[in-house]
């Protein structure tokens, strides 16, 4: 990645990689309604992140493996801790046929794993899915299809127009399986009561 460096300059506060974005009701984009996004990369070239609280409808991990023609051992299929708990998330509207895995630092492949922040890494290769399927993947992971992307300056302008709040991330919240609680928990981290944000009276 040309120009990527981890020793941040005085611009550090300008970039939000490693932070959460929390969608505001004023945003108006239904794809991101009540979403919490973990920002994986943010620079002058734009930004990308993974939505961490939207479950993918109509597909589970085993079906995804079948689609990608990854065949675990027959014995492995019996391991509920590997498969049944492994939700597939909607990571965002870009490249929705591709898997992106946020995971703990115990899995690392040179040249394909991107360290982000605070022990959270991103890998987007078939290999990590194969590793998870065979029980040799990371201890904690969140598997998403697709990602959210912003052109240069786009995220900044959306934040200025109150489309998003941002706050420091929390690995426990990223990997928490209780998706319906993540929006409230992220707001609570900022000391915000979600009921103060409700301006969508048309919703039950």
Quick recap:
The protein has 204 residues and is of the alpha+beta class. It is built from six helices and nine strands, in the order E-E-E-H-H-E-E-E-E-H-E-H-E-H-H.
Question: Can you walk me through this structure?
Answer:
With 204 residues, the chain is of the alpha+beta class. It has helices spanning 61-67, 80-83, 126-133, 154-160, 171-175, 179-189; strands spanning 19-23, 36-43, 46-51, 88-90, 94-104, 113-117, 120-123, 141-150, 164-168. The chain has one domain: VC0467-like, CATH 3.40.1740. Helices cover 21% and strands 28% of the residues. Strands 1, 2, 3, 4, 5, 6, 7, 8 and 9 form a nine-stranded mixed β-sheet that branches. The termini are far apart.
Question: How are the secondary structure elements laid out?
Answer:
Layout: E1 19-23, E2 36-43, E3 46-51, H1 61-67, H2 80-83, E4 88-90, E5 94-104, E6 113-117, E7 120-123, H3 126-133, E8 141-150, H4 154-160, E9 164-168, H5 171-175, H6 179-189
Largest sheet: 9 strands, mixed
Helix content: 10-25%
- Poorly predicted regions are 1-12, 200-204
- Give the overall shape: globular
The number of strands is 9
Q: C-alpha Rg, in Å?
A: 17 Å
Element-by-element helix/strand order: EEEHHEEEEHEHEHH
CATH architecture: 3-Layer(aba) Sandwich
DSSP strand content: 25-35%
Q: What is the name of the CATH superfamily?
A: VC0467-like
Q: Averaging pLDDT over every residue, what do you get?
A: 85
CATH C-level class is Alpha Beta
Based on the structure, what is the oligomeric state of the protein chains? single chain
* Tally of helical runs: 6
